[in-house]
Amino acid sequence: MSKVKTALLIIDVQNDFCPGGALAVSEGDKVIPVLNRYIKEFRKARLPIVATRDWHPEKSKHFISGGGEWPSHCVSDTKGAEFHPDLNVEGATIISKGMGKDEDGYSGFDGVTGSGLPLVELLRDKGIEKLYVCGLATDYCVKATALDARKYGFRTFVLEEAIRAVNLKPSDGKNAIAEMKKAGVKFIKNLDK
Ligand code: VGL
Ligand code: ZN
What we know:
This protein is of the alpha/beta class. It is built from 4 helices and 6 strands; from the N terminus they run E-H-E-E-H-E-H-E-H-E. Helix 3 runs parallel beside helix 4.
């Protein structure tokens, strides 16, 4: 792994985004074995692992019931909001986002740790310069997080085998990848590249 201080940033691998969940992403669970391999490598290298979670209130403008776009999902402290049980998240720093009732919280950079520390401060405190972004969903939270990461000046890589798209429109995932590439996000298949 590279010498530049790097963090693994896992986006929203929660029950509601996996098959059977309230806002299931097709093949969302397929990212899990891939992610578990990355998690192992980061642990071995003693590099930080951060896992974001969508953590909405019961009533939110993010939901159709509140005038938004989505069926209710990832309501805080429900089964659907838990990380998928097969994801090895122990030891990861958890970032919660979308907690306000007027908030979408697509970007991990809209989120905070349990003690209220914003993601960008957590990463800067740890001296992180480079991010590997992965998880769900390509066309919403992965995209928003990767674009913000570029804005904050991080070298940003998306692990292309460890993302899946919602694809409300079939081309959304592809378009999201193009938009990220245009913003300077690199797509890689493996950590050594
Ligand atoms: C997400 C739609 C709604 C995501 C979150 O994690 O990509 N997508 N809320
Ligand atoms: Zn959401």
